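Request: Mind sharing a record?
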Amino acid sequence: MDGASSDRKPRLPQKPVSRHGCITAVSMMKDEGPFVLEWIAHHLAVGFTDLVVFTNDCTDGTDDMLIRLEELGLAHHRRNIIPEGVKPQPSAIKHAQADPLVGQSDWLMVFDADEFLCVHYGDGTLDDLLDAVTAEGANGLVVTWRIFGSGGVQHWSRQPVTEQFLNAAPPMWNKGWGVKTLFRHDPERWKLGIHRPSMKNKVLDTDYPHGIKWLNGSGQETEEYFKFRGWRSIMRTVGYDWVQMNHYAVKSIDAFALRRLRGNVNNKANKYDSGYWALQDRNEVRDDSMLRYSAARKHIFDGLLSDPVLSRLHHAALDSAEARLADFKDSAAYEPFVAELKAASQVPITAVSAKPPKERDPEKIAARMSEIERRAGARHAAERRADGRTEVRPTGLYVLSGVDMSTEPPMERAMNHSIELPADPGIFTPPALTQIMEGKFERNLARNLPKLLPRGARYVEIGAASGFVAGHLRNERPDLDLTVQESDPERMRFIGKLWKANGIDVTHQVRLEGAPVAADAATLGRFLADSRPDVLVLGDPVLDAETLEAAVAASGLAPPRQVYLVGRLWSERYRELPGFEEVLHRLGFTERLGLDPQVAAGYRRDTALAASHGDGA
């Protein structure tokens, strides 16, 4: 779905047909008139065969557009008849549960009008994505939000939402990890929900849950508990490689003003305030992956406008919205409103607060958890013990991919040992940001390395990520000779800025290297021969144990006195520790140092062996 164009006169699109049957999107809208056709066009381009939209209390023609789309065979409109005392969204979901068309769906997803599905896998269509899902024997896909901000845009525009707003929260921002779930539907077994369906009580203690296999957004199987509960991803389960749900909660300042004027689909009082804006206006990284749909979406959108009724309704909705906005912009309230939101945009990502959905009673949660869930959890724990996997997983402190240092969003800074660190979500994960703001980033390494390293040692770090440890060592141990390598240009940019801000200069005693060295033994061997490390710190996750052993041999030198596994290598390859330790043992590293295993693993060579090489500790 990376392109679609035609020189012919636009004409109405055809309803998609899928080899996976009926793929249904269920949504709910209230006065979304200016955005309805883009949402419809986009999700037809993605490949939903059926779009079912429930509306309530519309004044701008949203419902009329959807009725016309139903007449054209391109969507299905439903009135959301709301019982007294019930909020609109739960009401719509209850109606959807009983809807015959929804019930006949092979695959189903419930999501909002400000959410746009973005498929990275294959050609960007649901057919390709579901091919991959079913090839894994799975029957569900848990899709995590990406929160898109205003990008600093104040004024109203008729341009597509998915093309105007290309700045988002970092992938590893856990406050933006709500999910939506695409799953194989069976109305007899599943009860619909806004984030994910839940199994009906009558199937919980049967064999049915054993057949449920859901994947995350990277195609990896979700944890057992998520079959039964949970509405958001966690550090262990988040993934975006295959698919993400782009959430455009604020858009521009003017669009947000319209949203606040009309209220929201769930009738929440004061929802659209500056606190909500600060939370949702995240612009830390650029993400233009949605542009793969631009041509196809425009082709469908133009086709929809070829219908004179839809065209009239669409432009009437735009005119109505712009007239309301003009009145507001002429009022005394507009400038303070803009100033308030612009101030909120400056709130660093580490300082925003997110209120989760109302917490359920823990006792009720425990009561609902069936015996099958407890048995499944026990079974998985037994499997982990049987294959020798450690129960203590290192804390991943660094974003693994997509690091972008081209912008500098508002962020907090805090002293961590001898280095002032920025709480930059573009490079650090949520656990790391917490450590930074508490002044405890990599505390175990920062406290112990200055005491463990030999006097005047040549310290060589491969895959330095942030340069924090080496910078701290420069301050605490000026006798050391430091060579710091990082092949990612964006991380190198971060290291350079960090060191400059902390008064650390690159000199003959402090070197910064950007060439890749860890991927093959010959290159790494030459690097070791040139740098002659006494202390070798390994943080590049591309390096494996076999390459390390071959590189040491290729260097023609005795092994270093000390080796440390840290950072991204340690968090990504900790399960390979037995292989690394076999290699290190053959190289003479018989002593494991007393470092926190959540942070690093350190090894020292046998002193007698080191002395035999003339390099005693």
